[in-house]
Amino acid sequence: MPDSTQKLTALSLVAAFNRMDVPAIVAHRAPSCLRHFYPTTMAQKPQDNSTYAKSLTSLHAIFRNFSLTIDELIEDSANNRICMWLSARADTMAGEYVNEYVWLLDFDQSGKKIVRTKEFSDSVMARDFFPKLKEAMASQRAKKATDQIHSNGV
Length: 154
Fold this sequence. Notes:
The chain is 42% helix and 36% strand. It is α+β, with helices and mostly antiparallel strands and 154 residues long. It has a 5-stranded mixed β-sheet with strand order 1-5-4-3-2. A hairpin with a 6-residue loop joins strand 4 and strand 5 (114-121).
């Protein structure tokens, strides 16, 4: 049996993430699509397409060699829904980023557009990793500023 349109869309979305192709990622989403973060203890507001694209663009500069691997994919065709358990990894200035996600994707009737996403991530990993990344980025900015001062002969 051939893959459904929504499964092909989900696979295409993961491929776009693996290329870190922000326009292609957003193109899989309906204009009114919202991205919701879980657990709610992360206190993240839902993101519309514009906010999501800006977030992805900023991450693109930070995460090198980003890759997602689908560990499990469950399709609920009757409800136009796919759930994926994903493993992520990337290289950053703070070291290797490794995380797990569960994405719940709701599709329109055509299966070609995602109308809502619910994204669960490892909040303990985020709590521990992102302060280290922020510190590494601040150190890099300070080093560049110092290098700039020295190269100007000050």
